[in-house]
Design goal:
Two copies of one chain form a homodimer.
Chain A (H helix, E strand, L loop, with lengths): L6 H8 L3 H8 L6 H14 L5 H8 L4 E6 L6 H15 L3 E6 L5 H14 L4 E5 L5 H9 L4 E4 L9 E5 L1 H14 L5 E5 L5 H16 L6 E4 L4 H13 L4 E4 L2 H14 L9 E6 L12 E4 L2 H17 L7 E4 L3 E2 L12
Parallel strand pairs in A: 1-2, 1-3, 3-4, 4-5, 5-11, 6-7, 6-8, 8-9, 9-10
Antiparallel strand pairs in A: 10-12
The structure holds a DNA duplex (30 and 30 nucleotides).
DNA sequence: TCCTGTTTTGCATACCTGTGCAAAGCTACG
DNA sequence: CGTAGCTTTGCACAGGTATGCAAAACAGGA
């Protein structure tokens, strides 16, 4: 087990100074001859620069922290994978943190603190909020933060979401055009901006068309809660359901069909939100609003990179629009194929 | 934006030396009085030890690298989340790497190299192999590796899998007991030990009972491939299908029901492997072999921790047994509720 | 009180690289 | 050949912590 080979070893073998080696590997200017000698010696010795020492002195770790609440909803693994790939190809690495289910808000701060300890260059929070105190701390440490799929009103943090309000509105217009009049809504968690915006856009568009919601229940992005909510709305005799995300929509469809013996969309139309891959499966054929994961992730990555490279860059709010994908789980307006 | 506060600042304020501060925070022995003064000064200044500097000198980063091929199959996000939680609670952090889809084997080595650069203390490879050269390099660097859900014959690396051979055998015995005679198999990727073992256990148990496979097709853990494989087997008139994992089994069930107009299990019994949460959903009710994720992750984490703490610890192979979960997608033997 | 054995403490150094600074080397031009 | 301007190079140090070593402090027993 050989000891680690350092820049000094390479320098000695190449007949140059350690600084020369450093310059070659950090891309600073050096003569062609020096570069050649150093590269050769490094190759022979199997030298690789020590990332820790480099980070210690430059203050940049080339690590981005990624906080994620839960990976049940397939939307998040998908996003996570894309984030990881994107950062990797930009020369960054991803440090993953999962929030414990107990006391998530409380723990989040501790977790972010640990990230700061590791001197991450940037932070992505997926569906997770950040206390003002901690946000200030990140700002003070010069660490840019991007909120992914979650807004935080009044904060100066960069945010990337889909156009949730517009998405909710699209669903409302579509259901009305299809002739539905008793429309129910199983909302996402109202503690999240994402959930609130979808609900709000939906309700406002209904009102604008002169209709009111026949019933609304909170689904909290939870399987069981969604099913109970569906039961209550069905008792209330609705003929269409807008569900806060696909994941809950699947549960609702299964429940309606197999437990309650109803047909979708003949008895009840169901519309979801996200367009996860499973929505296209033959067993569900879920009509849903697409969240363009790819573009959302790209936007978030771009925003973070911009801020990491230019500390004075402004943090903005980005809303990415996504289409309503028509499939079989909701009745279609007359004359629409 | 205040400059970083170091151990020297704390030392000055507490009236002790920097070493004293270091000792307090690294848990070495110190007098009660010193501890009190240091803690107090640190609190007042908001001091936090610099992880990079610490890692640089100790050679241990308290980071574990995690390589994952793809997160489509919900088995992996689930495992990933548990890994992350487990390591977090042990004071380790998780660095995530995803393999690019192109040239995965080639890229894997580069990725692992990058992890070594970051001086990770340990490595978890989920469904990913490691070239012998690189395995040797990890060993030389004293970095323990655990293969998760993937074996590698002839390697000295620690491995945690489920009892794939036994699982395949259980399925065979169950199908025979239920009276199936024309049995088909859509295998997992035969380049992976996991896929091979399931197939092999299945076939051997069939033979032991005096039967032969009516047909076998490679599914490669891929949605589309699985569907095409199912078509070919159905042409071949099978009345039962053992599918290499749940993810493919869902695709197959959808295809049989909605495209081919067949009933499951009346026309064809379908059995999967993994028991992901979705298998219990009313839309599928998939009979499947459970891979006990929780226990598998715990075993992998324990194995890694053991090796990280005691470098001379032996790397072993662990197979975790899982039951066949009976649901509605496969016909049951007479007299079995 | 003196001596021995045990803690505690501070000093100095190591870990490994990036970078400011000044000296040295080189090119080109008059 | 001299000099100005530019590039390359080496020196020395910084970044923040852990730790071996020796000195100091302390506890206890005779």
């Amino acid at each position: 087990m050989s000891a680690r080979v350092t820049a000094f070893d390479v320098a000695a073998r190449a007949g140059v100074s350690q600084s020369a080696v450093s310059r070659v590997f950090s891309g600073a200017s050096a003569s062609g001859e020096t570069v050649r000698k150093v590269r050769e010696a490094a190759e022979a010795l199997g030298y690789r620069p020590n990332v820790l020492a480099r980070s210690l002195i430059t203050g940049r770790s080339r690590i981005v922290g990624m906080v994620v609440a839960y990976l049940d909803n397939p939307f998040y693994p998908d996003a996570l994978e894309r984030f990881s790939r994107a950062f990797q190809s930009e020369g960054y690495h991803t440090m993953l943190f999962t929030l414990p289910e107990s006391a998530p808000e409380r723990e989040c701060d501790r977790i972010v603190q640990q990230m700061l300890d590791h001197q991450v260059d940037g932070l992505v929070l997926a569906s997770v909020g950040l206390s003002d105190a901690l946000a200030a701390r990140c700002a003070a440490a010069g660490i840019p933060v991007v909120l992914f799929n979650r807004g935080q009103s009044g904060s100066a943090l960069a945010q990337v979401t889909s156009a949730n309000r517009a998405g909710g509105a699209k669903v409302a217009e579509f259901l009305i055009a299809a002739g539905h009049r008793r429309i129910g809504h199983i909302s996402g968690w109202q503690g999240s901006s994402t959930g609130r915006d979808r609900t709000q856009g939906f309700i406002e568009a209904l009102r604008a068309a002169g209709w009111e919601l026949a019933g609304i229940e909170e689904g909290r992005y939870d399987h069981g809660a969604a099913i109970r909510a569906a039961d209550r709305l069905i008792e209330n005799d609705v003929d269409a359901l807008f569900v806060g995300n696909d994941h809950m929509a699947f549960a609702v469809m299964d429940h309606l069909r197999f437990t309650r013996g109803l047909s979708v969309p003949e008895d009840v139309s169901v519309i979801g939100y996200d367009d996860v891959p499973m929505a296209a499966w033959a067993g569900y054929e879920l009509t849903t609003v697409r969240q363009p994961v790819g573009r959302m992730v790209s936007a978030a990555v771009a925003a973070l990179l911009r801020q990491m490279e230019d500390m004075s860059a402004q943090a903005g709010i980005e809303e990415i629009d996504g289409p309503l994908i028509l499939r079989g789980s909701a009745r279609r307006p007359e004359g629409l194929t």
